[in-house]
């Protein structure tokens, strides 16, 4: 089984009735219900559960961490962000969704501001598959059509992705690198742009398919218990 942990700050769904209608038990539960299958098991953590909810022990038992956050990024303790970063470097997979571009662990992993332009007018989005041979794009046609999504636009100030899987286009003309893959030491990181809290994005079967594909892609094949820089005292040959 692939052990997935979903972190959702879980604020909008509790404070805003219109958003609660879209995600009655929270984005994390909507995702859990659709992602769990014979190969994937999911545990969920919210902001209220931090810092213990993402302890070193929890992360050690997590193969792939999924992160959704928006208005309470700053309340995530720095120690949690550092733990997540270290866990990824050791080999854990991580998937950052939508406004998690500004989350502490994502910024730490990227090493840049991770800024972008944003506009919320209910535009539709086409999420174009630009690398149909990539594992994360399997089962998706030429594009995913989302009736409504927040328009994110370039420049997206992240490092050049190691692999780019999707580019999003919007009614207003913006383009955005919507599916970016990174390798960070032993771990794999995927950023996926769709998922504004007031739209039904995480009910779309193709979006769930992308996330399942990404879980399999990010599932570690190699993990180390510690990051070490050993002194090799003797040469290989005398
Ligand atoms: Zn948003």
Task: Give a short overview.
With 238 residues, this protein is an alpha/beta fold. The protein is built from seven helices and eleven strands.
Summarize this structure as a short list of keywords or feature phrases.
238 residues; binds zinc ion; nine-stranded mixed β-sheet; alpha/beta; 7 helices; two-stranded antiparallel ribbon
Kindly describe this structure.
The protein has 238 residues and is α/β, with parallel strands linked by helices. Helix content is 24%, strand content 26%. It is built from seven helices and eleven strands. It has helices spanning 12-15, 17-22, 27-35, 56-60, 78-90, 104-110, 205-218; strands spanning 2-8, 40-46, 64-68, 93-97, 117-119, 125-129, 143-146, 151-153, 163-170, 175-184, 187-192. It has a nine-stranded mixed sheet. Helix 5 (78-90) packs across helix 6 (104-110). The longest helix has 14 residues, at 205-218. It is globular. The mean pLDDT is 98. Zinc ion binds at residues 98-99, 150, 196. The site of zinc ion (ZN) has 4 residues, from loops.
